[in-house]
Amino acid sequence: MVVRREEMDGGTKLARFAVDKGKKLILVSLAGLIWIQPIVSLGPLGAASSIAHAAGEQTTKLDVQDITSGAKLIKYQYTTTRSGKQVKVLADVIEVDLSNPYVEMNVMTGKGGQLTTRQSVQGMAKDTGAVAGVNGDFFATGGQGVAMGAAVTNGTLMTSPAQLQGMYAFAVKNDGTPLIDRFGFTGTVYAEDGSTFDLAGINQESYTTEPDKAFSHVNKMFIYTSAWKSEERPKASSTTPTEVLVQGGIIQQISIKSAIPGAVPEDGYILRAHGTAADYIANHFAVGQKVDTSYQLVSQTSGQALDPSELKMMIGGHTLLVDQGQPSSFTRSTTSISGSSAVARTAVGYSQDGKKAYIITAEKNSNSTGMTLVELQKFMTSVGVWRGMNLDGGGSTTMVTRPLAETEASLAFTTSNGGAGQRAVANGLGVYTTAPQGTLKGLKISGTSTLLIGATTSYTLKGYDTYYNPIDTSGIQATWKSDNGNVTWTGSQFKAVKAGSSVITAVSGDAMNTLKVTVLGGSDIDGLTPDTTYGSLDAGTTLPVTVKAKLKNGNTVEVPAESVKWEFTGMKAAVKDGVLTVQSVNPGAKVAYATPKYDGYSGTPIVLSASSEQIWESFENVSYQVGFTGLPADVTGSAAIVQGTGDRASSKVLKLDYDLTGGTGNKFAYAQINGTAGRDIPEGATAMAIDVLGDSSLNWLRAEFSDVDGKSVYVDLIRPLDFNGWKTINIDLSGYSIKQPAKLKRLYLVNLEEGQDERALSGSVSFDNIRFTAPASSDGDTGLPSAKVQMIIGQKTMTVNGQKQGLDVAPLVKNGTTYVPIKYILDSFGGSALWNSTAKKITVTRGTTVMELTVNKKEFMMNGSMKTATVAPIVTGGRTLVPLRLVSEQLGIDVKWEQKTKSITLES
């Protein structure tokens, strides 16, 4: 066979198509599982149960979920032995009741129901309103995206089966009877002169036939309908086409040895011919003559003809997997679909009584390892499949199902593509509901299941009816309650009162639903960090104090303002609506701290200190690069340091010339600072001042900063620029949450598209004397004491400015690293340490430095930013000892080591 193949997990795979409708149908997905916590559902169907089969193999039902009337999702765990080891695989089965009048199966085809338009299974389900679906037939992944097998939708033959050996198809007849068989295609074209010619197929890609290995379109005639989207019919066929356009049974156009331009019209079809077929057209067709066609499917096992109109749906696949309730011999080679490898798989089958259809997937993801085809066969027989076949698998395997009370289908499991998401496929097998609207049967509570103390939240209700379809709940009145005092109902919302778990309940008539919620306590927190790091220590200063909590499960959440308690040192202050206001500064205090607390957990303090304005750049002695960038590229100009004019004639300035006449849309002219890298601003900067030479252009001026995480922060300087001459612009940075240390990357001019005709498109602005207000950096400015401290390794005494005093624990050397007791260092050099015994964390404050150290962890927080040390703090004798190098590098204390005497001298 000459079919295009693509790589699967562990091998190669054929590409594929999909089908529709039924009585009871089950789609099954399987994937290898490493470990899973069993889910036990209530009721006979939901109860966990196991089926033992073959030595060392077991199928365990984990959960049953209703999708709609007549369709349910059943989750299984399949246990088998592989390479001498027990392996557990997750499998998902959609069971469809083919006798239920309110459920159908049908083929989902690409985008808009047209061939050659691949789409994800979820996308097709959304477009067609399917409540569940899986990927369908194989297809040539390097081709146009058309199924290899037959596809019938609502009695219409979308594609005929390719001439390939051993390929099976699944179908459901109009009376709800399922069947799986091998099918061929037969058809005839009738000319007005009474002559006929054989049709080779309908809407087929080019391929190599089996077993003769011939080109599919050579000397053949095909029909292409409006279901074929592409204007190439088909591509890469190795043939020159002759095409005939037929509308209303009349020949409208004949194109000899060339394609008719454009797509197939909706009210007609195109006959596409080559070689002897093209000669037939030349000899027997003429524009204006009548032409007719007929075609049908033919069973290759019984020879019986099957009119597509007798079918609700049909979808093609690959090998037969199950026959008479037993694993069957493979009907074609499975090498190209990695048959012996454990990969994600998709299959379809039906029960012995023909009343159930099973759509099956085997998962391959972080929870499951996929299945071999032999394993898939055994699993299928264990869940009741009487006759079944393989659909496309590997990266194509996808299942979507609609959860109760939801309006759209979503992924039932993570595909083997992982982060790559869902593969776009040629077609899929969908499940549909035709039920009328019923009465309210059940409720579903939607909302957060994790709360923080003091927070209030609302929950919404979704409902489903007696047919398990979503129902409008906007007019439903429900009664709400909580089972304990951890969460209380306020009459309109729930409020988290204290740490612990609660079950909230909503009741409306006979419908009820519950949701378990957890109120997080201090023991659940692994970090509490304000977005604001620094502030000015002046009465009247205001700072936004949004706080984020890092949870022990790795998630990060914003803590509601009402959930945070604040402790103030060195000042009197208050926090209201997420804003801190300094009311007064304690006498003599040059540094103050605002420490967030949550249920006994103390977070990283905000440092407020006496600040001063520092000239950051006067442009007199610049050693870094300054450059111009325009956006879009048609924007031109220059940025350079030049001699000033007028009253700035004796100094240098940064001049930005711009021409925005080129390009369209929003326009920007950038003066880059230090190339694209930017330049560090003072640590803890809370305000910025800059002198600007305006040009009354009415454009905007902005500054772009880059914070410690590389995130850009945009600060408006002037909006609009409505003056000439020099003017000092003052900017409060405290409200921008610039996570420091940070850089100033560029100053730039903004000209938005809206109202562009009211602003100048060319001009020149200049900048000078950029200043930042930031905390004083010297010990004298922050009020920190100077001292000289001497310690000796192994001795529980130290001298401070010549005075001896005792230590609870001696300095020590461990694995080549010197450790010192942090408490005594802070006592001598100023600062404090707060110990959190639960988190094994110590928060050190000294001047404008705040460090958070965790015992046995190299990662530490420095002024709100994560850093990594070479070694971690330790605990000895009930005291925290920190690496000596960490003290010298981060706390601004000089350290000297005397090897001969094993003594340490610290000075500041």
UniProtKB/TrEMBL annotation:
Transmembrane segments: none annotated. InterPro entries: Cu_amine_oxidase-like_N, Mao_N_sf, NAGPA. Residues 799-905 form the Copper amine oxidase-like N-terminal domain. Residues 243-432 form the Phosphodiester glycosidase domain. It comes from the Bacteria. This is Exopolysaccharide biosynthesis protein.
